Amino acid sequence: MGLKKTLEFILNHPLNKTRKYDALQRFFKWQVSSRFLPWPIIYPITDKARIIVKKGMAGATGNLYCGLHDYEDMFFLLHFLRSEDLFLDIGANIGSYTVLASGHCQAQTIAFEPAPATYEFLMDNIRINRMESRVIAYNMALGGSEGSIPFTTSLDTINHVAVSGDASAIDVPIKRLDTMVGEKIPQLIKLGVEGYETEVLAGSGDLLDRYELKAIIIELNGAGSNYGFDESLIHQSLLSHGFLPYQYEPATRSLLRLEAFGNLNTIYIKDIDFVKNRLRSSPKIEILKQSI
Question: Containing domain of residue 142, as a range?
Fold first, then answer.
């Protein structure tokens, strides 16, 4: 992302709109300090959870600039999850969602991250939050079959199952989701695998039919076409399993029903009354001195 788009994202972020000067200060302070002090910092993403931020980490620096990089989706997780829940973080990257789920909400998490170097940062974030007893993290990809698959390693938050023309790819193990979770049923799944969502769901067995699973945050941004997948079929499949697409407004704790999936993340929900009650009953959370 270029400088102009980065600044537009920061200044238009919901947590920065009324505090743009503070946001710019955080941005320029990090740009300067990360050049002269090249080691990582530990940033308190909430009062109960921390992440390691290092120069070049787009997702991590997004949290530093904006409090929560993915405003609606991360607040949905924070307001929805409870300590007795299980969360699946598929495409965990450095673990921002894992840290919120198991560090702040104290839920159990099973996380999957295929890129070895990124997986090490995920493990570091698990350790600094002392979440080892609540998080199981696997250094592997998920799909509809088992074996190995080429995976990119140099694209930060958009590493993906390699396609023709991708450089810096290595072979990583790939397993089916139903094999890895067994009888464990999550209440919430975050699924963001840069277009490979169709294959992940193909390996999920009957998970979508389980009543315990209430919501899925899924990235449907058109990247599935890189693998010949039609992402509208995922939408239709989720509808057939009783899920409906929503957008979350954290400040009002309200859910807006959508007619179709968006071009970034979409939250699919079933048992809407249960989810609404959870969201409304969650305590407020302070991010960047704003209580939401």
Answer: 70-291
At 270 the three-state DSSP class reads: coil
Q: Do 20 and 28 form a contact (C-beta atoms < 8 A)?
A: no
Contact 241, 208 (CB under 8 A): yes
Number of domains in the chain: 1
What average pLDDT does the segment 149-155 reach?
Answer: 86
Give the span between the Cα atoms of 231 and 17, in whole angstroms.
Answer: 33
Q: What is the CATH number of the domain that holds 244?
A: 3.40.50.150
**Each residue of 125-164: b (16+ CB within 10 Å) or e?**
bbeebebeebbebbbbbbbeeeeebebbbeebbebbbbee
User: Which tokens is 183 given?
Assistant: 């009888």
Residue 165 has pLDDT above 90, yes or no: no
What are the helix (H) ranges across the chain? 3-12, 20-36, 58-66, 71-80, 96-98, 116-128, 177-181, 197-202, 231-240, 272-281
Q: Does residue 24 lie in a domain region? A: no
Residue 26 domain flag: no
Q: In this structure, are strands 244-249 and 254-257 parallel, antiparallel, or unpaired?
A: antiparallel
pLDDT mean over 237-249: 97
* One-letter amino acid of 10: I
Smallest Cα–Cα separation from 86: which of 113, 68, 70, 105?
105
Distance CA(268)–CA(145), nearest Å, equals 25
Average pLDDT over residues 81-90: 98
**β-pairing, 169-175 with 141-142?**
parallel
Q: State phi, psi for 178 to the nearest 5 degrees.
A: -65, -30
- 210 lies in some domain: yes
Look at residue 87 and tell me if it is in a domain. yes
